[in-house]
């Protein structure tokens, strides 16, 4: 489903009433103005897709009024069709200099007029579609949301995007990322009902508007279908490993989850929205909450208490919290250096050289948010590799970010053990601090 086109006819009463019924058969919503004053009043709140304007109006020159429309109406500007009685070719050509997109004769057959207008509206919709997916773009999404806001029928909006698409593009290239985005768009279109609307805002940001009574079920189907086909976009080695490996400066290797999607759902049954911007912002708020979960997931304004979730702002959340870091380092000098530099960054830092003591600290009242560890530890029964696996196997502790800062040259061993990031010694302290900040924020 696409938003209903809006046509404004500015013409003498007889002509306006004659053209209106035929144009309504095209599926458009038609408004008429029989004077320039009435047209000004309608244009103060109406945002037409196309304007049919007579060159001669009782109180003024329609050509000059057409110039004013082009100069004052904000983007997206409506298609401007001027109509005149004269068959003189030079006069008709001059109307294009006044800003007309098309010039038609006032004695045109009504059926031909309807088909010409349909062609203009079709071209307009094509121009406002996303070039990658051919789905309606931001302007059509805005129009659809504005029409939904004044509708007396309940509706829901699903904000959908891909997780970790930037890193996927860095590893496999933008062309592969575009194919993944197109696949997500195709899934949304496939799952959408006939009365649903699917739009593509930008990059991997999609919006689905539905009148379904159970939008959560639709979101679950989207997640399942995406997870079912997503393996086609990876080499076999990545699928078997279960994660991506991103390479950064200074020999850094990052463990990145496979691509998944997040969906935020808002419903007109649960609150009244003030504008289309309010709809987009609110649905994205719930989408950001969904991103905090692992794998493809959705969060609905009907599934959790609204006062506990909105407004969600990751930056505010990060600024209000003092993150705790545990450093597991047998080298005393290195341990002191890490503690000093991390403390200067505003982190609460604990230091130990023992895996056993580290286990006690992570099971304490306030476990760390991130652990920096060396693979070689003095404990006989547990080294850094075993400790890493132990933490990732514990459901209550696996959320802790693990950074393996080690002189061991095998980065794959660190990532296979469960580390989120491998940084070989010696390392640049600035690089380490930047990566820690990215993991925690």
Tell me about this structure:
It is a single chain. This protein has 441 residues and is α/β, with parallel strands linked by helices. It folds into 3 domains: 6-127, Response regulator (Rossmann fold); 138-312, Alpha-Beta Plaits, CATH 3.30.70.270; 319-440, Response regulator (Rossmann fold). 43% of the residues lie in helices and 22% in strands. The protein contains 17 helices and 19 strands. It has helices spanning 13-24, 36-43, 62-72, 89-97, 110-127, 138-149, 165-172, 174-191, 215-230, 236-241, 276-290, 314-319, 332-344, 355-362, 384-393, 411-417, 429-440; strands spanning 6-10, 29-33, 50-54, 56-57, 60-61, 79-84, 102-105, 156-163, 197-202, 205-210, 243-247, 253-257, 260-267, 297-300, 324-328, 348-352, 370-373, 401-406, 421-424. The chain has a 7-stranded mixed β-sheet, sandwiched between helices. A hairpin with a 2-residue loop joins strand 4 and strand 5. Helix 1 (13-24) packs across helix 5, helix 7 (165-172) crosses helix 8 (174-191) and helix 8 (174-191) runs antiparallel to helix 9. The longest helix has 18 residues, at 110-127. The radius of gyration is 30 Å and the shape is elongated. The two termini are 39 Å apart.
